[in-house]
Design brief:
Strand order of the largest sheet: 7-8-6-9-10-11-12-13-14
Helix content: 25-40%
Radius of gyration: 22 Å
Number of helices: 17
Number of strands: 20
Distance between the termini: 56 Å
Largest sheet: 9 strands, mixed
Structural class: alpha/beta
Strand content: 15-25%
Shape: globular
Length: 451
């Protein structure tokens, strides 16, 4: 698509919106950047965009922005169902997400990873594996810089590895990665999508436009994801931690193996994987599946799996204070992700949880808390609902605090070796922080002051 001479409205002045507004202006579009927040509430420095001639429409987002507009580009935080976007579509104004813009600008093949949990770890792993091959690699999407910014410099011989969220998939219409992957599906973002069925529909857009020339890597152990194979036109590659498959990527004995076209190859032993936990075995399997069809060798995969330390804010070791280990799992923004963190420890956990409530089911999460957590420290908007569910499940030692400094101080007071302190909120961060990264950094800073 030629963006030159188009009148384009970019909605949302976050990382993606600011980046794509500048890129579209560079490509010759007349670009307006709009955000409902006033300029003084926007963290980004907008002077560079203003110097380029990007028009600022801040502090309002209404229908007065639409006359003369050819295209609307959505940041992930703007729903496709927002009144302004719905009105634009009724006027037959084209709407697309920032990821769609990135795809149309990208000269290289793309591997796109989605799922409820594990996206960042798997995407980062794939990026490291592909770098080990010597190939030019760009990693972006829902992590790091905006994807439209990342793809601009890559050559056609490289590969783009992209973490893609359901929010980003709302506004795609030609998006077709050569390799797609869906890691798992559990209820999340229902407040945005309205139902689990719609959430799943968004996830399936990762492979909706693929053809028989493409590949889609699916989790065989997740019934909802396994069933998606019936709707895929691409070659389906299953991965499984629990089943030995005739073809796909799976655990055989104590090894990770790939079987394809009647040939089986060994990758490495399970004990060779540096990042621990059953969920990380699944992430490793998915990463190997994507990397194999992107051209990586088993040796490339094994070398990275043996050394990859994990990603920041995901069961990240922070420090040991008075013999107690502190772990930052701020990226756990839903109960399912926090469950995986709890399962990575044998028990004796001081758990800090809470934040902005997504109103997802807490029963399994609380059952595991009762089994493995010695003290539950709750904070944020969700703390009262979490407390009520914990009481209902018969959990003792529940503590409510007002802020993160109070949570860390209390955890330090309570914890004794061999206990561990784990921040795994099972909630979004937006009641107290801009994002989960900021939340994790505050936690790490507070722990650093304990020593």
């Amino acid at each position: 698509m030629d963006f030159n001479n188009k009148n384009i409205l970019v909605l949302g002045a976050g990382v993606s919106g600011v980046a794509v507004a500048g890129i579209l202006r560079d490509l010759g579009a007349s670009t307006t950047l709009s955000d409902a927040k006033p300029k003084e509430s926007i963290k980004a420095d907008l002077r560079g965009l203003e110097n380029k001639g990007v028009v600022m429409a801040l502090g309002r987002q209404d229908e007065a922005l639409l006359p003369g507009i050819d295209l609307i580009v959505l940041s992930p935080g703007i729903s496709i169902n927002s009144p302004l976007v719905v009105k634009a579509q009724s006027l037959e104004i084209e709407v697309m997400s920032e990821v769609e813009v990135a795809y149309r600008l990208c000269p290289a093949p793309m591997a796109a990873i989605t799922g409820t949990n594990g996206k960042t770890t798997t995407t980062t792993l794939i990026g490291e594996i592909m770098r080990a091959t010597g190939r030019e690699v760009v990693v972006g999407g829902n992590i790091g810089l905006a994807l439209s910014q990342e793809v601009r410099e890559i050559s056609p011989s490289g590969i783009v590895v992209a973490e893609i969220s359901s929010f980003q998939l709302e506004g795609v219409n030609k998006f077709r990665p050569h390799i797609g992957a869906i890691l798992n599906l559990t209820p999340d973002h229902i407040d945005r999508h309205g139902s689990l069925a719609t959430y799943q529909e968004m996830k399936e857009r990762i492979f909706a436009r693929q053809t028989a020339e493409d590949y889609v890597v699916l989790n065989y152990d997740d019934p909802a994801v396994r069933e998606m194979a019936s709707r895929a036109s691409a070659k389906v590659v299953f991965f499984s931690r629990k089943q030995q498959l005739e073809t796909g990527v799976f655990v055989k004995g104590d090894h990770l193996v790939i079987c394809w076209n009647n040939e089986c190859v060994d990758i490495c032993k399970l004990t060779d994987i540096k990042i621990k936990g059953a969920h990380n075995v699944e992430n490793a399997l998915a990463a190997c599946g994507v990397s194999y069809f992107a051209g990586a060798s088993p040796a490339d995969m094994a070398g990275v799996l043996k050394t990859f330390p994990g990603v920041e804010h995901r069961i990240e070791p922070v420090a040991t204070v008075d013999g107690v280990g502190y772990y930052n799992d701020s990226k756990a923004t839903n109960p399912e992700s926090s469950i995986k963190a709890l399962e990575a420890f044998s028990g004796q956990i001081i758990l800090i949880a809470g934040g902005r409530d997504k109103n997802t089911d807490l029963s399994e999460f609380m059952r595991l808390i009762k089994e493995r957590v010695d003290h539950l420290i709750l904070l944020g908007e969700a703390k009262e609902r979490f407390r009520q569910e914990a009481v209902r499940q018969g959990i003792d030692n529940i503590h409510l605090v007002e802020d993160f400094s109070g949570a860390v101080a209390l955890a330090h007071k309570l914890a004794r070796p061999p206990q561990v302190v784990l921040l795994s909120p099972a909630c979004a961060s937006y009641d107290m922080f801009s994002n989960y990264e900021e939340r994790g950094k505050v936690f790490k800073d507070l722990v650093g002051r304990l020593g």
